[in-house]
Amino acid sequence: MWRTSISWRPTGINARHRGFEMTWEIVIGLEVHAQLSTNSKIFCGASTAFGAEPNTQADAVSLALPGVLPVLNKGAVERAIKFGLATGAHIAPKSVFARKNYFYPDLPKGYQISQMDLPVVGKGTLTIQVPAVGKLPAYEKVVGLTRAHLEEDAGKSLHEDFHGMTGIDLNRAGTPLLEIVSEPDMRSAAEAIAYAKTLHTLVQWIGICDGNMQEGSFRCDVNVSVRKPGAPFGTRREIKNLNSFKFMQQAIDYEVQWQIDTLENGGKIQQATVLFNPDTGETRTMRTKEDAHDYRYFPDPDLLPLEISEAWKNEIRATMPELPQTKQQRYVAEMGLSAYDASLLTSSKAMADFFEAAATGADAKQCANWIIGEVSAQLNRDSLDIDKCPISPQQLNGMLKRIADGTISNSGAKEVFRTMWAEGGEADAIIEAKGLKQVSDTGALEKIVDEIIAANADKVAEYRSGKDKLFGFFVGLAMKASKGKANPAQMNDILKKKLLE
Amino acid sequence: MSLTSDDVKKVARLARLAMTETEIQAAHAQMTGIFGLIEDMQAINTDGIEPMSHAQDLAQRLREDAVTETDQRELFQSVAPQVEKGLYLVPQVIE
Amino acid sequence: MIELSLKQLSSQLAGRKISSVELTQLYLDRIQQLNPEINAYITLNHALALAQAKAADQRIANNEASPLTGIPFAQKDIFCAKGWRTTCGSKMLENFIAPYDAHVIGKFNQAGAINLGKTNMDEFAMGSSNETSYFGKVQNPWDRTRVPGGSSGGTAAAVAARLCAAATGTDTGGSIRQPAALCGISGLKPTYGVVSRYGMIAFASSLDQAGPMGRSAEDLALMMNVMAGFDERDSTSLQREAEDYTRSLAQPLQGLRIGLPKEFFGEGLGADVGKAVEEAINQYKKLGATVVEISLPNSKLSVPAYYVLAPAEASSNLSRFDGVRYGYRAAEYSDLADMYEKTRAQGFGAEVKRRIMIGTYVLSHGYYDAYYLKAQKIRRLIAQDFVEAYKHCDVIMGPTSPSTAFKLGEKGDDPVQMYLSDIYTIAVNLAGLPGMSIPCGFGANNMPVGLQIIGNYFDEARMLNVAHQYQLATDWHQRAPQGI
After folding, report:
1. Which of A411, A434, A457 is the last residue of a domain?
2. Do residues C58 and C207 both lie within one domain?
3. Could you say which of A58, A83, A177, C428 is the most buried, measured as most Cβ atoms within 10 Å of its Cβ?
4. Is residue A187 situated within a structural domain?
5. Is B20 within 8 Å of chain C by CB?
6. Of C377, C397, C431, which residue sits at a domain end?
7. What is the pLDDT of residues B35-84, one digit of tens each?
């Protein structure tokens, strides 16, 4: 899947890897297997539920009993169409299932039903936000998608010792997968991970994959090569089955270093499939089969061509949620958020839903700051996802409104937030119970200021003679006198006015 | 195209068929005969002809996404060569 | 009783002249007597058959019978039948008890038909003489030193020897029609997609089609009423309204236009076969048909194209036989690769291995376009030939097989000669058309000759009508081999 048309940016941020900027350019492409969230398998009515007893979800078709036949699951096709629509890709009016022939104990038919020449989804794009690293700023990049095709998953080989034998569980065999292939457009591990994360968000966002990486619902194969900038692509090695972003980072770092060391020591890169060992942080070449890669693809005679009409696409389009990228653009344009903050707030649909509910009728920027700041920090500390947040967006919204209308100060808000998180309750009730309402009564504040001025005549004189720094001293006294409840902005105004009188 | 006995060996390996040298030689001779018959195809011009994969020109029918199968492990594994704890056993797989 | 048609048997059962249990027992006794030599059956199960017969008698007593209720049939051993050993003629499945019913088996069961047993066949349906079966050769009831044809040789022999009332077959390149011709019975391969392939062990998926084999066109029509019909479990099963295949049996043939492909009457056709077919055509003329010469110019390429496409599909379809989940596993092996290679080398016979090798080769890297793609293009040319031909005729007729039944062992060492015995039948599978064979006389050594009738898509009822009218006027189909 390595086409020649690529768009790499000839700037410093493309080649940035430890000490070899400008010496070697990293080229990365990804093949992601997303398990589609259907109830039943792609070609039969067996359940796809995770974690069942071995082989209890391996029906006659999953086991490839003699005489059984495949019938395509509509739900799997719908999910492929959703993906195509979400990435602005070409959706093939006619696509073809092919058999990929090879022997492996977890592949019951001795072939995998996949798509080869005519995939269901053709060329598309994915826009990613690459975060800032060190002095390099965050930036946006458009990654090309080569294709996405439907195929069936294999079963699992369990290598625990069964008297020197391997156990085969075929529950997973036949689970629908969408294999999403990118162009070799990524130029750093950071870009590869940003791409993988964006894709991971998207497939969950549009409801086609549960995204559970631990259960193998989203598996990444990373093709890595290096070259001198401007040179043709180097020989790639494929790192198989990465199931966490952390491992992906480690695996790419190790692999890049290994390839560069190999080349700089006069060696050559052989095309290979490698596995990443999380314990050692190293990659190692898989045992190569002498007959590898003669898969003898041919159109599956048991399945007719898949046809997708405009009407069907339109029907599905009408059910699609607003996409993360569209939301990001809206947050920037209408709410004045930075592109990076917008991308954080759309890191999941739950996050965006939370933000939008909390921001209703409130200051969006302030809301964003609270969510990216306090809310995310607390969630992290408690290892919770946003959808398990103990504070509802409505509660947060109630608090934001009290900040906006001056009822509470920022420090008061932090106290409200802590209480809400730990004990629940609405902002108003907490403010009331804890006496956090700030004093905004001009008369009361003026009285406090008058008393301070009267009691500190010498400092007032110093201030009036030009020692501006003393302003903070007066603020401190005033806040103390108000027991922290004074509206800080109002207090500042009154202080300034009175000190200059 | 003439078939060599190395081709035959490679094919036997791809098809996972153990074959002795004698069997390879015999298969080579027979396959050469059969390909003699097959080569007749090359005489005809098929430029611009759409390959035909299916007897009918129809589209794939789709199944509703519903679970219709129940656990029949015991029945299905009653015909298996070797099972343990619900798993099919095979000689050690090394990656 | 054993000479009665299905319709007659049905009325005997309905009139309580005989019970299904008695009729079943009658056949089981005949099988016990004759099968040890003829070897038409691989597996018998008296208990299962008699239990079905008992249930059928109950159904008849309750007036809930349908036309085939209580009638003893045989099933080709390619169909999975729950609780029955289902071998497909292979050592690979020697001990395989099918855990589910094929669509066809389910349909016969629903109709209350009796399954007497599973009939012998070429291993995985690959063969034209039934000699590739792991379970031994089948004798042609007309001459026990000759082959019954294949791959549905056991079925053809069982029907001819009156070891069942009728039976099922499957046809990938002629496997219903050729043994029907060689054993002097009638057989129909329907349009591809008319009978579900679910539970029928695949040989070449885009060509395989099940059909009825019996003693008359009328019997075949009654069986088609049970076998045909949409099945959601087979993606290639056609969604069509159910039809009554007996509906037009009685129609006269006045005005029928018969196309005779000149390619079917040239070099390679045995003179005895040619003569019998010619006489049959004359009979049709007497029945009011007219004859037109047609051409199927690409039909000569059907054998080469078939021997690319069918082995290619088969090589992939047979990959599931790996000794992991069911079937044979080699007794000794050193590792996984060795287990695969020994299991498959020991479990498959020579012809199956040969075809797996051919199929693997034509799909392998660098050869796909030259062989597989080329053959698919030729397949289209062959199909187009028929479309053109049917502009000028209603049915096409010719010989089913170039010769009558050959001697057992005669073509054993020469696969090419064996492959050429399907030269008139293969094009029909490539096009997906319906084809049938009916007895039309005897050739050399007094062996039966088959007349092939090829119809347009979905013209089965018409073909059955054409065959039935011939059978009303002739008695070839009623002849029985001596000594049975």
Report:
1. A434
2. yes
3. A58
4. yes
5. no
6. C377
7. 999 999 999 999 999 999 999 999 999 999 999 999 999 999 999 999 99
Residues A176 and A157: their CA atoms lie apart, in Å, by 18
Residues C251, C309, single domain; the answer is: no
Nearest chain B residue to C343, by CA: B17
Complex-level ipTM: 0.97
Number of folded domains that form chain C: 2
Inform me whether the pLDDT recorded for A2 exceeds 80: no
In a domain, C437, yes or no: no
- Asked which of C321, C351, C377 is the last residue of a domain, the reply is C377
User: Do A226 and A371 lie in a common domain?
Assistant: no
Separation between Cα atoms, residue A246 and residue A239, nearest integer Å: 14
Q: Do A165 and B85 touch (CB under 8 A)?
A: no
* A451 in the same domain as A306: no
Nearest residue on chain B to C334, alpha-carbon basis:
B91
Q: Pick from C298, C329, C353: which is nearest to B17 by CB?
A: C353
Please list, in sequence order, all residues whose beta carbon lies within 8 angstroms of the beta carbon of residue C202, skipping any fewer than 6 positions away: A66, A67, A302, C208, C313, C314, C317
The H or E element containing residue A462 is helix A457-464
Domain boundaries defined on chain B: 5-42
Q: CA C452 to CA C259: how far, in whole Å?
A: 12
Q: Which domain holds residue A99?
A: 15-311
Question: Is C76 designated active site?
Answer: yes
- B18 pLDDT tier (thresholds 50, 70, 90): very high
A306:B60 CB<8 A:
yes
The interface residues of chain A toward chain C in range 341-360, judged by CB-CB distance below 8 A, are none
Q: Could you tell me which chains touch chain B, where touching means 3 or more CB pairs under 8 A?
A: A, C
Nearest to B76 among A44, A63, A97 (CB): A63
State how far residue B33 is from chain C, nearest Cα, in angstroms.
7
The answer to whether residue A476 scores a pLDDT higher than 90 is no
- Facing residue for A302 by CB, picked from C205, C322, C368: C205
Q: Do C308 and C243 fall into the same domain?
A: no
Residue C169: inside a domain: yes
Question: What CA–CA distance (Å, rounded) separates A410 from A406?
Answer: 9
Q: Do both A62 and A81 map to the same domain?
A: yes
C286 catalytically annotated: no
pTM of the model: 0.92
Do A267 and A353 belong together in one domain?
no
- The pLDDT, as a whole number, for residue C213 is 98
Is the CB of A165 less than 8 angstroms away from the CB of B61?
no
Chain C residues with beta carbon closer than 8 angstroms to that of B6: none
B4 vs chain A: nearest CA distance in angstroms?
17
CB A112 within 8 A of CB A152: yes
Nearest partner of C208 among C76, C90, C387, judged by Cα: C76
Which spans in C253-373 are helix H?
271-286, 302-317, 336-347, 350-363
Boundaries of domain holding C141: 6-255+462-478
Distance between A95 CA and the closest CA of chain B, angstroms: 10
pLDDT surpassing 70 at residue A15? no
A162 vs B contacts (CB less than 8 Å): 84-85, 87, 89
Tens digit of each residue's pLDDT (9 = 90 or more) over A69-116:
999 999 999 999 999 999 999 999 999 999 999 999 999 999 999 999
Which of A407, A434, A461 finishes a domain?
Answer: A434
Q: State whether A299 and A383 are in the same domain.
A: no
Interface test with C, best of B44, B53, B72 (most C CBs within 10 A): B44
C19, C20, C76, C118: the active-site residue: C76
User: What DSSP character marks residue A118?
Assistant: S
Residue A106: burial class (beta carbons within 10 Å; 0-12, 13-18, 19+): buried
In a shared domain, residues C342 and C201: no
CB atoms within 10 A of CB C180: 37
3-class DSSP state of A37: coil
**CATH number of the CATH domain containing C221:** 3.90.1300.10
